[in-house]
Amino acid sequence: MRIALLAIGRLGRDPAAALARDYAERATASGRALGLGPVEIIELEARKPGKAAEAEALRTALGAEPTYLIACDERGKAHPSRAFAERIGRLRDGGERRLAFVIGGADGLDPAFVAEARETLAFGPQTWPHALARAMLAEQVYRAVTILAGSPYHRD
Fold it and tell me: What is the dihedral of CA 155, 4, 123, 113, to 10 degrees?
């Protein structure tokens, strides 16, 4: 199952961007044997300002390929790491071929876009900068892969 992390905004040389890329690369390398990956980070810019334009850019990037969509939203459900890993494993085992996590712009995701998602995911009750949210999501995907692989990376 291919995994995409779509995010509004380009981080460029930001240290958090390098960290997110590193975790995505680790997840890709570790996930191959498990049928997970590649894990890619897709950064997008909307042509116009506003949530609706950002949602359109996200829809365009997702394309027509069937994708299990999870919107990152402060009102979403927070999962412990092991439950997050189990969820990814169940999606893979259930035949999903592509999983996409979506992070909106500074004002969040368009409510209509969130409604299109199959699930919503929160990083807890705190508000996080988008660069850190991207790195945290990439790390959790890597952690999920290592949990599914039985690696000692995750400790309960």
Answer: -160
The predicted model scores a pTM of: 0.94
One DSSP character per residue, 24-83 reads HHHHHHHHGGGT---EEEEEE--SSSSHHHHHHHHHHHH-SS--EEEEEEEEEE---HHH
DSSP state of 9: S
Query: Whole domain around residue 25: which residue ranges?
Result: 2-149
One-letter amino acid of 97: R
Q: CB under 8 Å to 22, separation ≥6 — which residues?
A: 138
Is 103 contained in some domain?
yes
At 12 the pLDDT is 83
- Computed over every residue of the chain, the mean pLDDT equals 95
pLDDT in tens, 75-133: 999 999 999 999 999 999 999 999 999 999 989 999 999 999 999 999 988 888 889 99
Task: Find the CATH number of the domain harbouring 24.
Answer: 3.40.1280.10
Number of structural domains (the chain) is 1
Which residue is it, tokens 């299109």?
116
154 belongs to a structural domain: no
Asked, for residue 26, whether it belongs to a domain, the answer is: yes
Provide the 10 A C-beta neighbour count for residue 97: 12
